[in-house]
User: Fold this.
Amino acid sequence: MIIAVANQKGGVGKTTTSQALAAGLAVKGYRVLGIDLDPQGNFSTACGAENYNVQTIYEVMKRAASIQDAIQHTKGGYDVVPANIMLAGAEQELSQTGKEHRLKEAVAPVAGDYDFIVIDTPPSLGVLTVNAFTCATDILIPTTAGIFATAGISQLNETVTSVQKYCNPAVKVRGILFTRFNPRANISRQMKELAEQLGEYISAPIYKTYIRSAVVVEEAQANSQDIFDYANKSTVAEDYKAFIDEFLKGVNE
Ligand SMILES: Nc1ncnc2c1ncn2[C@@H]1O[C@H](COP(=O)(O)OP(=O)(O)O)[C@@H](O)[C@H]1O
Ligand SMILES: [Mg+2]
Assistant:
């Protein structure tokens, strides 16, 4: 299963969710590969991967390196293909026919080695995100409860529909995950209204688990550790565990 974690809005928890998903699935014994597809390289850094003077997803997508040469093993027990700012050039450089399929082609040789491949995407709906959707079997959309984040969901839905039409008919939105949730807010009313709104935009379920907001997330990332490694007893670690269980239940149904 190949999961693209996407939302064109920055700061909604894509990278945090990608890392928690990769780490949490690895803890359960699954073979996991995380792919950083954001030129900001936050996922690579958070995982403790090297992203300079090594082969990255940029070289792999440009066919200058094989994916095997770019895979790194993390202390979290999952593998990572890193990214750095060079990847920002991909938007212009991958202009040939078939550019949407570069990631899918690159991943193919190792796809069978992993139970789950998790792709962290940049905050845009450009060629990189389209590559992620073309490669993926499933899309996971993290979002915050802010109104600005929700307005973008319909735009995201258009990109998904377009990829389904031209590149990858089988890809589907697996679900929407609320992150950075303020536990002091009025959960039921705020979330109910939002869920109703989202339901109109995109025909995908909303996960029952919400990821609460807590400072340990930034601390863990600054320390290049995943949330389970850094603060396994924290509310956020508990929330991500509950989410992964809910996610796996959906996968196995
Ligand atoms: N549940 C959370 N609680 C507190 N801070 C969070 C949480 N999730 C993410 N953050 C912080 O919010 C910022 C944006 O999160 P990130 O995962 O990088 O979002 P994106 O990849 O969508 O831009 C980061 O500084 C991160 O540490
Ligand atoms: Mg990110």
Q: What stands out?
A: The beta strands are 2-5, 32-36, 72-73, 79-81, 116-120, 138-143, 172-181, 206-212. The chain has twelve helices and eight strands. The pocket of magnesium ion (ligand 2) is lined by residues 14-15, 38, 42 (CB under 6 Å).
